[in-house]
Amino acid sequence: MIETSVQKEDLREIVAEVLEVDTDELTDTDDFVEVYEADSLRAIEILARIEKKYKVEIPQSELAKMLNLDAVCEVVARYVGT
User: Is residue 24 scored above 60 in pLDDT?
Assistant: First the structure.
């Protein structure tokens, strides 16, 4: 489960801002590429903002796993607090 230091709603705000959608439109399971037409530059921007907010370094190789909000939360939780 997601660690308390990683708040899904904080991540939702970051992702929604980068994808230029309202936070209430961004579901936990919608695919960023298929539903929100995200590209690799947006994925890198999401990663950079998360790294800045949580003061962690997440390898770009993890981007392939960050397909939706649930997956982003799982990846971030692995790196926060380690």
Answer: yes
